[in-house]
Amino acid sequence: MAAQAGELMATGEERLIGFGRMKRKEDARFIRGRGRFVDDVQLPGMLHGAMLRSPVAHARIVSIDTSAALAHPRVHAVITGKDLEARELAWMPTMSLDRQPVLATDKVRFHGQEVAFVIADDRYSARDALELIDVEYELRPAVVHVRKAIEPGAPVIRDDQPGRRDNHIFSWESGDRTATEQVFEHAAVAVEQEMVFPRSHPAPMETCGAAADYDRVSGKLTVWCTTQAPHAHRTLFALLTGLPEHRIRVISPDVGGGFGNKVPVYPGYVCAIVGSITTGRPVKWMEDRSENLMSTGFARDYAMKGKIAATEDGKILGISVDVIADHGAFNAAAQPAKFPAGFFHLFTGSYDLEAAYCRVRGVYTNKAPGGVAYSCSFRVAEGVYLVERLVDCLAHELELDPVELRLRNLIRAEQFPYRCKTGWVYDSGDYERTLRKALQIAGYEELRSEQARRRELGELMGIGVGFFTEAVGAGPRKHMDILGLAMNDGAALRVHPTGKAQLGISVQTQGQGHETTFAQIVSEELGIPAQDIDVVHGDTDTTPYGLGTYGSRSTPVSGAATALVARKVRDKARIVAAAMLEAAPEDLEWVSGRWTVKGDPEQGATIQEIAMAARGPIELPPGVEAGLDAETVYDPPNLTFPFGAYVCVVDVDPGTAKVTVRRFVAVDDCGTQINPMIVEGQVQGGLTDGVGIALMELIAFDEEGNCLSGSLMDYLIPTAVEVPDWETDYTVTPSPHHPIGAKGIGESATVGSPPTIVNAICDALKPYGVRHVDMPCTPARVWDAMQGKGAPPQ
Fold it and tell me: Which ranges in 87-229 belong to alpha helices (H)?
């Protein structure tokens, strides 16, 4: 055991038991190439599927001829929408109570939509056979621009819906419209800014896929799937196929990144299942990179018009915003059912306002569906971007330093818990302390002096400041569900007689380090070394029910369940220890992993000793069962609200308009930190995401709706070359309602960094009179802004 611990743990600050720095347990297999992903699944007799996709964005399907493909000697089946109609499987529900085709039947509605599915002996033969399918299309006008989609007379995309005459999906409001209008009527200063948070894509390293194996004898279906929510997918598969849920097993093995992209159920998953049922053999489908970028869940795509009102001395009074949300051809956004715009109404940000109001209109276009929470909690990134850009625009109008404007308006520590003007109750915070720490690390005053010197030399240096509050940990069952499934999570803990433990959790890791952090939570509560705790996840047959990992909900929800189930075990261990020590349970106290007799610490028992006794012949009180096992389901009373203050320094080349992020200081507050090393990794990953979103990432389309970003040559993502050495630090403000005070950290940096970078770019371009530049801030777009020709990307 000592040798194993030596391999796992480093010396110095790192700890064997409880919270603290600890190397990730799961990395031992990953760095040796021993991870097991969906595409590693090999089953006897396995067949392979390939998807035929639409080459156009909008067209009626006149005919589909599959005869040549079926004649291919290595092809076993070709499935079309008509075949699925016979099984009543042609359409499937989306996460937002809409429906979308598994395979197109009447017409195609976006470039890359699924049309037919070929099953062959190998993936190469399946791909080759796609070329043998003849589809005749009757082209229709494509609706690409979201504002044109709502114009009178725009082509109707969803004519499958009886009576539909336009492309409107929903109109949703939050806040007090009347109070906000009154604030603006009496405000001394009002600033308006249109901005676009363009369509981006999570682009995980591993694309989406599934391997389905239906046993015709037992009626058991096993699906290995790239899913962030195995239990939710099992329920959806049962509802869709009509198979009994207890005979469906979903296994999510190691997942090579998710970032929200692997929350939805995709047509390829369903086709693999139907293929296995049809052929009686396992069927695997894995998409390629182009398929992933063109057809799976996108993020953002919000066209926003924001207004901010203030007094002459910079007291912010109110914010009003109107949003047109591009949902693509089907409303497949993944978010709680009661919140069609997600948590966008957190757009009030970190500021103490008098009034706020927003209206969000969802619209269909001829683009891929989605709207996933790409490394943010359900549209919080869009809301934070809006408010932080508006605050900087207001500072520009008032000729105030953006730091000073924020300090005058941040919610004060004594105001928590704070109810914002759209109804959220922020749990805790000390915003000014966090902002001042970021400014001190950055050397803000020195940076402003340097900027003044550089401007005299004609150099374009920009300093951007941003502050964000995020809402994570969805969520309370009385408010939040997806497809009628409450967003609660379970945990099951079993301590074996030798003192080792197994924890089953309902969330699924995609690289966040769950196998380490959740073991550390149990270790902190019970005193068992983390390497002696096995964390089981991703298998619906062996884990408790829950809604999965996204929106930074793992630690706030499943982490809380883990702490509570460990405390259940500890409470039971107290009863067993009392029987061992011949003492009353109330005479025992918990000290450093032992139940000891009060006043006589020598008399006690470790959790390992208690675990053995709990399975032994010791006489337990009536009603107390043997063993140290427990289960729990956690229903959070509220969300948690991590926050942070960021400072960014950029240089813009006056001749090429290329933006270089020179420095970035990030001070985050995620409450109690379980493993600071993992927190650091999550923040650095999110900051890198932010650079990509701010400077280069865009899913673009031409006027015919063709996706122009179908490869990593066209959809750029950042590398180590484009990012600086991150400067990170933390403040700690525990959540008062969370069992261990943790708030979540996985997506905070992706929320806070894009507006901070854009603020820095706009600051650099002040000599050109530029107040706003829409993302992505590519050299071409920055150059246009410098020439006074800046325009949004749609």
Answer: 123-130, 146-149, 177-186
DSSP string, 410-447: BPPGGG-SEE-TTS-EE----HHHHHHHHHHHHTHHHH
Give the torsion sign (CA, 126, 74, 240, 156): positive
pTM of full prediction above 0.85: yes
Distance between CA 594 and CA 604 in Å, rounded? 6
8 A C-beta contact, residue 330 and residue 109: yes
Q: 611-617 contacts: CB < 8 A, separation 24 or more?
A: 611/495, 611/496, 611/497, 611/498, 611/499, 611/573, 612/497, 612/498, 612/499, 613/576, 613/577, 613/579, 613/580, 614/495, 614/497, 614/572, 614/573, 614/576, 615/497, 616/497
Q: What angle do CA 460, 462, 466 make, to 5 degrees?
A: 165
How far apart are alpha carbons 234 and 229 in whole angstroms? 9
- DSSP assignment letter at 246: G
The amino acid at residue 500 is: K
User: How is residue 168 annotated by DSSP?
Assistant: E
Tokens 């591009």 belong to 326
For the cut 90, the answer to whether the pLDDT of residue 471 exceeds it is yes
Percent of the chain scoring above 70 in pLDDT: 98
Nearest partner of 482 among 328, 369, 342, judged by Cα: 342
* Average pLDDT value for residue range 425-432: 98
Question: If you ran DSSP here, which 8-state letter would residue 81 be given?
Answer: H
